[in-house]
Amino acid sequence: MRHVGGAHRGLDMWLLQRASALYMAGFLVAFLVLLLAAGPMGYETWRGLFAPMYMKVGGLLFVTALLVHAWIGLREIFIDYVHCLVLRLGLYLAFGILYLGCLAWSVDILWSVK
Amino acid sequence: MNRQMNRKRPFFLNLLAIRLPIGGVVSILHRVSGAALSLLIPILLYLLWRSLRSPADYTAVAGFFSGGLGWLIGLGLLWALLHHFLAGLRHLGLDFGLGEGRDRARQTAWFSLALAIALTGLIGLSTLSGGGA
Asked: Do A102 and B41 lie within an 8 Å CB cutoff?
């Protein structure tokens, strides 16, 4: 159990947190531009935004970055406030599973738009 | 004076008794907004799924956010996203050594706090007068 608390993964997490933040920031700005350029919003316009392959791939990368970012952020909060190691590891695992499920779901959502 | 300060030193972090500097306020709100957004990811995915599924689902999602409690929840989400985004950019700048001086750090903290609130307010007002999506 010596390294299980994660004393050696801080730098990887730190870098991933910032890399995922930068990708999400870029994607969100690009998405906002596409949204504003699409004109009056409605179902067909909204769905049309997600039709191109670049939006599916870019969107899946966004969701992946979001889930990684959220998991690392929650991990930092758990390290600060959850001092029982078993409980903390249980929370890492629970959110890991939840977020993997979200990733699979987002593939289905994005590729359901023809 | 030092002796008196030491005697009154709190033993624990009573959030109501300590006065955080503005950078601390922006930082804790960055954490709170991040935690809230993280916990809401499954619900946000659900909303994305519904909005793309059919015209009726899209109308239901848009209708939820267009007025009343849903409008307030939408603005709360928007603020959390904007604050997390802007405070996050500020923290990225600090990582690269930008704006580390005390005065500049305070300015950027106030700026990110105010801009997130102002943008949320502006978008809130525009959706009020625009009559919804």
From this structure: yes
